[in-house]
Amino acid sequence: MSDSLRLLSEHACLGGVQRFYEHASESTGSPMRFGVYLPPQASAGPCPAVLYLAGLTCTEETFAIKAGAQREAARLGLVLVSPDTSPRGTAIEGADAAWDFGHGAGFYLDATQAPWSAHFRMERYITQELHALMCKQLPVRADAIGLMGHSMGGHGALTLALRHPGLYRSVSALAPIVAPSQVPWGRKAFAGYLGTDESAWAAHDACALIAAGGRLPPLLVDQGLADKFLSEQLQPERLEAACRAAGQDLTLRRHAGYDHGYYFVASFIGEHLQHHAAALTSPVTKT
Question: I need a surface site. Which of 49, 51, 182, 260 has the fewest CB within 10 A?
């Protein structure tokens, strides 16, 4: 991992500071960018952090600009980290041909199929490289990191937390893709990144992972009922059924009138950050 961070921009925000960084990533073999909000409390020492994974077509700036999360993070003393959704500028033929596959659509997994496997290693990037960088170079408490995401990023939050138990102390999602192996977005991505053998897809499907014994911290999920992707791509009832069968703690809230976009995210981001803060500031239970 390269420890060299290049500061792209810095903006005073609610007594803290919003920054954007770039660094050379060993995981993706390309430059990677991420945003960081440091609350006022970070000037006095390390703070709990929430890592936010964005959805299809988004960049490291989308969450910082659109979600309005900084105000509640400043009140709660939470660092917010928002990485890009995929490598960029990979020169892979066809990487920009579709909005839901390739650049901007990494699906937070490590591709096994050429040519994607050379750069699209987002699971390794998020859980190893960026995690270590956050803990080493930012005022972040390594024992108090939460994970959340929206849409494709909600899929990432669920699956990465399930695949790396103990790495994240709190988890939540907004309008997540919960069963990607069963819906068009996920099937397209998995076929391209992982190959056509569907038996390999279950390892990146939250519902399948929960059914196989994977467990999460108490989970908060919000879903808008006016979301145009609800019935075809998101299907939260699958997650509800999987958690019920497995005894996984889930709070699934459905909201009339809300669609899939960042007006929805902005409406409930404060409650998600409160969910994370409650878990990240509580004493660690030793077993």
Answer: 182
The Cα 69–Cα 107 span in angstroms is: 23
Q: Which of 30, 227, 275, 276 is catalytic?
A: 227
Q: What single-letter DSSP state applies at residue 28? A: T
pLDDT for 186: 98
Among residues 27, 30, 86, 151, the one annotated as catalytic is 151
103 vs 87: CA distance, rounded Å: 6
CA dihedral 162, 284, 134, 70 (to 10 degrees): 90
Take residue 72 and report the two structure tokens written for it. Answer: 């509640």
Measured between alpha carbons, how far is 281 from 242 in angstroms, rounded to an integer?
29
Distance separating alpha carbons of residues 26 and 118, to the nearest angstrom: 11
Query: Is residue 260 among the annotated active site residues?
Result: yes
25 catalytic residue (yes or no): no
pLDDT single digits (tens) 172-228: 999 999 999 999 999 999 999 999 999 999 999 999 999 999 999 999 999 999 999
Q: pLDDT tens-digit profile of 139-175?
A: 999 999 999 999 999 999 999 999 999 999 999 999 9
Dihedral angle computed from the Cα positions of residues 142, 46, 266 and 103, in that order, rounded to the nearest 10 degrees:
-50
pLDDT tens digit sequence for 86-116: 999 999 999 999 999 999 999 999 999 999 9
* Active-site annotation holds for 119: no
Q: Where are the beta strands (DSSP E) in 26-121?
A: 30-38, 47-53, 79-83
**Catalytic one among 260, 272, 275, 276?**
260
